[in-house]
Amino acid sequence: MFRKLCKYEFKSIVRTLGPIYLAVIAVSIINMFVGVGSLTNDYYDTFLNNFSFGKNLLQLVETVSLFAYFGVMVALSVLTLIVIIQRFYKGLLSDEGYLMFTLPVKPWMLITAKGITAFVISLASGVTAAISIMLLILGAAGPGEFINAITSPQLWAAVNRGLSEIPFWPLLALELLVLAIVSGLSQLYHLYFSMALGHLANKHRIMMSVVAFIVTSMLLSFLSGLMMILFGISIDSFSNMTESMSNSQAIMFIMNVTFLGSIVYSFIELAVFFFGTERILSKHLNLE
């Protein structure tokens, strides 16, 4: 049943965001040859050298393609956020919630399905944006220069030298990946928790959800600042522990402690938001 919930969510979200993904890639490809690519490499200047109207037309097309690119990138980020919020609010906190809560599943499964699909869709939007940026870089540098740059022995030698300075970099990379996943889920469930809190109000529930998000964000900022102060105080004890270490080992130790501390903090946030949302939907749900 859980798999069916996720499949249903994916289908609903992809129908909305799929076209904008295709639009971002299409506009990026156009900019490779007309927008950024043309402005950087003057692809068409020789061809249009004897046609003044052609140059004016090209300048217009370059300008329009650049504006179109920024437009679809903004639309990608805004639509992703709107769809994530809409799928949770309409799916569980509005009329559609009557149907969802009659399914033979626990509320935590509904919340988990929403969170997993929203996280995957956020990743998909990020990957789409990264691909579009790579296409622009490819167009600006030119295919030949780009391939030569990424296959340069000097580049990879410099990368190997840098990694050799951090002997346990795979561990740091793994910790950074875990931190990105946990913090990303925490931010999603922060939105869900705020909407669930706002739904407890009898009137103006959307506005109260915004207020709940602002208040919880301020509280989190205060706690984060407090943690930073405590971490700053602990730096002295860290410095004593790292006196006998080399510079690379000391940096590795401090980064390891920082990543682990951030993971624990983000995991606590995630747990509070997830179980807080689950309790509200389980015990205090009001769809009227």
Report on this structure.
There is one protein chain. The protein has ten helices and no strands. It is mainly α and 288 residues long.
Q: Tell me the number of strands.
A: 0
Proportion of residues in β-strands: under 5%
Give the helix level as a range of percent. Answer: over 70%
Individual helix count: 10
Our measurement of the CA-to-CA distance between the termini, rounded to an integer number of angstroms, reads 27 Å
* Poorly predicted sequence stretches spanning 5 or more consecutive residues: none
Strand count, sense and barrel status of the largest sheet are: none
Give the helix/strand class: mainly alpha
Secondary structure elements and pairings:
Blueprint: H1 2-33, H2 36-41, H3 52-92, H4 96-100, H5 107-141, H6 143-150, H7 153-164, H8 169-198, H9 205-241, H10 247-283
Helix pairs in contact: 1-3, 1-5, 3-5, 3-8, 5-6, 5-8, 5-10, 8-9, 8-10
Quick structural overview:
With 288 residues, the chain is mainly alpha-helical. Helices cover 84% and strands 0% of the residues. The model has no long low-confidence stretch (mean pLDDT 78).
